[in-house]
User: Fold this.
Amino acid sequence: MNAVLAAVELQAQEERSVVAAEGVFLTTEDFDRLCRSLLGELAAHHKREPLSRGYPAKPCARKYCPYGAGSFRAVITRLENDGAVVFGKGYHSRGEHRVDLSEKDTQLRDRLQQVYEESALEAPSVEEAMTRAGVACRNEHMAERFCSY
Assistant:
């Protein structure tokens, strides 16, 4: 029986009608759809959170492995080999995504860094640090992102 399955798998892969993903067989159309869907989600994530390094790997895998972890690894491997996706430090991101701060944002980051360094052992709250840096504390989430760079 294994020889028959192996022969069918080989023929299907040669015809490019099926993608084998660690024991799961997906039609080429389904596999390509998963790839496009993941790329779309990563693009949306980068648009929502441009300073984020990428989409956290574990939630990404849970969301994009309807056929099991093997199918997700196969999608990621294909996209990485194509240069469309980069995996690093627990995050997936589009290959072209760059975390670059504008000049204004870089200055703010530097001011915040100085505030924290001057505080020594008693680090201020994010709100206090933003106030000392001369910025109205409207977006704590964004301030926390600056502090991580």
Q: What stands out?
A: The chain has two domains: 24-94, 103-147. The chain has seven helices and five strands. The two ends are 56 Å apart (CA to CA). Residues 87 and 93 are 7 Å apart (CA to CA).
